Amino acid sequence: MNPVNAGLVLDGLQVGHKTHDGGTSGGPLLSDVSLSVEPGEFVALVGSSGSGKTLTAMSCLQLLPPSLGITGGSIRLGDLDLTRASEHQLNSVRGGRLGMLFQQPKRMFNPNRTIEQHLKEPLRLHAGLRGSKARSKALELLEEVGFADPAKGIRAYPHQLSGGMAQRAMTAVALAGQPGMLLADEPTSALDKVLERQILQLLDRERRERGLGILYITHNIASVAAYADRVLVMNAGSIVEAGPAGELLTRPRTDYTRELLAAARLAPESRRRPPSRERDILVLDGVGKHFGSRRKLGHAALQDVSLTLKRGEILGVLGQSGSGKSTLAKAIVGLEAASTGSIFRQLDTAGPREGTAVQLVFQEPHSAFDPRMTLRTSLQAPLRPSHDLSPEQRDERIAAVMAEVELDAALLDKRPGQCSGGQLQRATIARALLLEPQVLICDEATSALDALTQRTILNLLLRLQRERNLSLIVISHDMDVVRYMCDRVAVLLEGRVVEVAETKDFFAAPGHPHSQALVQASIPCRADGLWSVLDVAKP
Predict the structure, then answer these.
(1) What is the 3-state secondary structure (H, E, C) of 326-340?
(2) Would you give the DSSP letter of residue 446?
(3) Using one digit for the tens of pLDDT, what is the confidence trace for 14-29?
């Protein structure tokens, strides 16, 4: 067997907490995990947040946190036992024979290195390419993963890329070492449906043409239904169900799998109201945002954007990665100054001061908090400038919003790294609510969450919107989220609004060609007679 295209086999893997004397404490985090991925096979590992999916992948790479260790079982890549391999052997395997595509690229990239520097390292170490040959291959990889301007992307630093663009770059880095086996951890959760399909088709082509084996970790069963040969369902550190994709998705045997399938189906909210006659609370008129000097042909992130938001309305903003959605959110909240046009806020006179009336819920909750601070300290920070509140009153307000977002007050004394993604996303919403906003902007607020947690957060936002009569702007690339949440939809393309319509009308008959492509891409592929998850989940 070619060692590059060797199979991956996990047999009875157990992972637990290590003690100072080399023993273990507490129950196992992974218990008796057994799975295999053959060359050219696409295996999907699905489950909710905290089920152990990422821990399984990190065990394969021997990159567990210092406090954790493998306490039983084995992991083999061909004839190499990774659990007993030397550090030298592991370094020769990581990024080469065994590639890893991480979920949160901006946390994994070195912020001091350009995308070109990140790409050239695996090209040199595992493909033997240097100089102009390495640069040419790097540009080719960026083009393959969807960079419209690879020459510009290769010079960028990670912080200069949008979340979706950074995920594309991470995909290119993972493929640069020409791995025989790829661990893909939620690689498309930050991507729009068009690009998600493009990346999946790229990976599918790699496995068909050169025998790449793929262990694809995801919480979204619908995204991989057309590509997976087998599906493994993980819950609480164990694999609870496994089988061929078509069989498992159409005839799930466990309640947990049926629950995952049901959560993936976000039906339109029955609460949708007729077109609002409320007054406009936010008006954007010809807003543009230009980065760099016009003389040097800098980048125009927003161009002539005109939108309105009514009081109590939920407006969805759709668009592909890099279309300007996050820049628009930052301009509205005041984190970016508009280069042209105006943003008019017609707030309630009895409401809070204008500087706090519009709040932003960030896309990546782990990046939204200082990792050194407890949640209590982070939530106290926005209240401290107010001289009207005593320390006791601040604590009372924090306790009230924690209850409002259904979080245990005991979490206040934990740091972000000790919380799950769903808990942190609730905490970001709580922090935004502390200043009693009238407009809440949610920038991809559920893109990194599993289907069960996503639905919980979306229902929480709907409840808060009703109880507080909030106006919401829901920025997303997920068509199901927009259809579930929003009264109207605005579509961004290359920084311009190309369509605004009522949600029902938009999904029934999108007008602009780009809107039509987005709606079409949101329909799950059907392959080999396999019906989509949305059909499977129907009672």
Answers:
(1) HHHHHHHHCCCCCCE
(2) T
(3) 999 887 766 666 678 8
> CA 226, CA 102: separation in Å to the nearest integer?
22
Q: What is the C-alpha to C-alpha distance for residues 41 and 331, in angstroms, rounded to an integer?
A: 45
Domain segments of the chain as ranges: 3-262, 280-371+421-508
Alpha carbon distances (Å) from 144 to 57, 102, 148, 188 = 25, 18, 10, 15
**Structure-derived torsion over alpha carbons of residues 91, 95, 101, 106, reported in degrees to the nearest 10:** 70
Question: How many other CB atoms are there within 10 angstroms of residue 218's CB atom?
Answer: 24
Tens of pLDDT along 509-521?
999 999 998 888 7
Give per-residue pLDDT as tens, 103-126: 777 778 888 999 999 999 999 988
Taking the domain 3-262, which CATH number applies?
3.40.50.300
Q: Do domains 3-262 and 280-371+421-508 have the same CATH topology?
A: yes
Span 280-371+421-508: which CATH code? 3.40.50.300
Task: Check residue 34 and give its pLDDT.
Answer: 95
The alpha helices in 97-192, defined as continuous H runs, are 105-108, 115-127, 131-144, 150-153, 163-176
Task: Write the DSSP symbol of residue 524.
Answer: -
Interstrand relation of 340-345 and 213-218 (parallel, antiparallel or unpaired):
unpaired
